[in-house]
UniProtKB/TrEMBL annotation:
Domain DUF155: 56-227
Protein name (database record): DUF155 domain-containing protein
Lineage top rank: taxon: Bacteria
InterPro entries: DUF155, RMD1/Sad1-interacting
Length: 269
């Protein structure tokens, strides 16, 4: 019996895979479902010792999945990566991470979950699937936190807008609106990471394993909830734009009345 340990961390807003691949002399295709895999002699060079049964998966959207790594090895790898790109944000790691263990028996059968009866034949492609699933779940956790924080902030100033306190809250409301629009842009640019991965070169069984794990991590339900919250944010943006436009229109009308009154007064004088 042996256990394969997987853990994925959010370490940056995004990772420059082209730059990292060039530095590591790793070939890759730059498509949405691609990533860099570091293992074998490359990983031996980074860790400075033989790293059998270990691997690292780096994803463009800023998540990294580690296979059979200790905390010390993770830190060593990130410091090495930091020498290639300065984008590593260690503050993200304690908040955004996912871990998973797979136990393999003497017959090379493995349980996908602890205390579950789902067993499959183990091979290295299982590492491939689990690394994708954990990275996507970690990124989804990041998006979920972002959208919840934005909703909390937006709801506060909407209450003030409804009370007619737009003038005293304009600067802060603009900042919040900018964050909402930026989040929507980022979520749209990364939305395809939640699509079914391209597993054309792998067996149908691996696609089934991905679906089982995606259901276990509730990808469908979490994605739908997040989409609903993003729609709420869009409504808030619309409400703000409508109120802001109405106030601007009122100001212009009052200014025109003021100018007309000055013109009439000057004519009388």
């Amino acid at each position: 019996m042996k256990t394969v340990h997987f853990i994925s961390y959010k370490v940056a807003a995004s990772l420059p895979l082209d730059k990292i691949a060039a530095f590591l002399k790793t070939n890759m295709k730059f498509t949405w479902d691609e990533y860099i895999v570091v293992g074998g002699e490359q990983l031996d060079t980074i860790l400075k010792y033989h790293s059998e049964d270990k691997a690292v998966y780096l994803f463009k959207y800023g998540c990294i999945s580690f296979v059979n790594f200790t905390d010390k090895e993770i830190y060593s790898f990130l410091k090495y990566l930091e020498s290639i790109t300065s984008r590593i944000n260690y503050n993200l790691m304690p908040r955004y991470h996912e871990s998973h263990n797979v136990t393999i028996d003497e017959n090379l059968k493995c349980s996908l979950f602890e205390n579950k009866s789902v067993e499959v034949d183990y091979d290295k492609n299982i590492d491939h699937i689990l690394s994708i699933v954990l990275a996507r779940s970690t990124q989804m956790l990041f998006f979920e936190t972002q959208v919840n924080n934005l909703l909390d902030s937006a709801e506060k100033f909407v209450i003030l807008l409804q009370k007619g306190r737009l003038l005293t809250f304009t600067k802060k409301s603009y900042a919040i609106m900018a964050k909402i629009l930026r989040f929507e842009f980022d979520s749209l640019s990364c939305i395809r990471i939640f699509e079914h991965p391209a597993l054309g070169k792998h067996s149908i069984k691996l696609k089934e394993i991905y679906d089982i794990l995606a259901e276990y991590y509730e990808f469908g339900g979490r994605f739908n909830v997040m989409q609903s919250k993003i729609k709420d944010l869009r409504k808030i943006v619309g409400m703000y734009s409508s109120l802001s436009y109405s106030e601007t229109e009122t100001r212009l009308l009052l200014f025109e009345i003021f100018l007309l009154s000055l013109f009439s007064l000057a004519h009388i004088i």
